[in-house]
Write a structure and sequence with these properties.
0% strand; mainly alpha
Length: 118
C-alpha cells in the first residue's frame, strides 16, 4: 500500500508536467547551457534519459521531504556521490541509464524504510 501511494503521488507529479510548457531543462540542470558535461549533454539529447532524470529528481525531492531533518544530509551526500558515478559514464547512454536505475532503486528502498505513524 505504501509503495502504491508513493507511485500514485509520483505519477500525479509527473503527469502534471505533461501540461507545462516544454523548456530546455532536464529536471536537474539547464540543457541550454554551453558548458554541459558529457553526461548532461547525453541526457538532454535523449528523451528516455531526460525522463529518468525527471523521475529521479521527483523521487529524490519526495523522499527528502519525508525524511527527518537529521537524515536529509546523508541522503544529499549520497546524491552527490551518485552524481559523480553518473558523470563517470560520460556520454555512454547505457551506463547513464544503469546509474539512474540503481539510484531510483536506492531511493525507493529509503522510502520503504521511512517510519510512519500507525
Amino acid at each position: 500500500m505504501k509503495t502504491y501511494l508513493f507511485l500514485a503521488s509520483a505519477a500525479l507529479i509527473l503527469g502534471l508536467g505533461m501540461f507545462l510548457p516544454q523548456s530546455s531543462h532536464a529536471a536537474s540542470f539547464d540543457c541550454s547551457k554551453t558548458d554541459l558535461k558529457a553526461d548532461e549533454k547525453a541526457i538532454c539529447d535523449n528523451r528516455p534519459l531526460n525522463d529518468l532524470d525527471v523521475k529521479m529528481v521527483t523521487t529524490f525531492d519526495l523522499v527528502s521531504g519525508l525524511l527527518p531533518m537529521g537524515n536529509r544530509g546523508e541522503l544529499q551526500d549520497q546524491q552527490t556521490a551518485w552524481l559523480k558515478t553518473r558523470q563517470a559514464c560520460n556520454a555512454d547512454v547505457a551506463c547513464i541509464e544503469q546509474a539512474y536505475d540503481a539510484r531510483l532503486k536506492k531511493l525507493m528502498s529509503v522510502y520503504s524504510n521511512i517510519q510512519r505513524p500507525l
